[in-house]
Amino acid sequence: MPHEHSRPSLLSAEGLTKRYGRRRRPALDGVDLAVPADRVVGLVGPNGAGKSTLLHLACGLTEPTSGGLRVLGRRPAADAAHLARVGFMAQDAPVYRSFTVAEHLRLGARLNPRWDMAFAERRVRESGLDPDQRAGGLSGGQRAQLALTIAAAKRPDLLIFDEPAAALDPLARQGFLQSLTSFVADLDAGAILSSHLLADVEKVCDHLVVLCDARVQVAGDVRDLLAAHRRLPAAEVPAGAELIDQGVARFAAPPPPGYAPVTLEELVLAYMTRAERRPVRAVQEVAR
């Protein structure tokens, strides 16, 4: 694998803001973010946090209201060549119900200059899909596998997934995550996975972005974040630590012994809880 410095960051944002129509509260509000190359990113947060908006901006499906965003070192969908470097799979695993599996692959070959038909056909066989089966007759797990195969057969440098496994049963979700991990390794690509399922994020992601209230609350490599956070046994906050919420604190230096480590779920919930309480405090302060 090439050294990280030889590749541009997966995604970088500066002051990124997106408003829809006359909506007073933005979907994204002044987001600053830098995701290094060669990461599998877990993008988590509550409904309405701006996760899908961020992914749509990264794919070039919509334009920011203000601020800057670069994907793989360039403006999203800057040209056809850049567009071919990004594979996107939306939440509902979109496929054409009247098309057969084989027809999906032929369409992919016509639309994508970097299309790898041998890769696509091999993944169809390994997934147990019938090339002559119409997509409308596939199970949810099979449709997800087909949509994932189409996204990966573009041979992109970045795969983006918006809640791809939300509607799948546990067995289908496990198969999907295994395929996702395999594709990222085969393609030597980065990936961004938006998900409500923290167990899925923990299985496949090595970088975390927590998005709440239209802002990034915390971001970084999972290993570094877990190393910097500890659970406090009491309300007292030691020197060199910042209380996040729910007894979870972040230490500026390596935490001293005696503090229990946190799980990824505890870390995420602490930042989400803090973000939910901030607007309430702001309203109270204005009322005073």
UniProtKB/TrEMBL annotation:
GO terms for molecular function: ATP binding; ATP hydrolysis activity. Belongs to the ABC transporter superfamily. Residues 11-238 form the ABC transporter domain. Coiled coil: none annotated. It holds the Pfam family ABC_tran. It comes from Actinomadura logoneensis. Keywords: ATP-binding, Nucleotide-binding, Transport. This is ABC transporter ATP-binding protein. Gene3D superfamilies: P-loop containing nucleotide triphosphate hydrolases. It comes from the Bacteria.
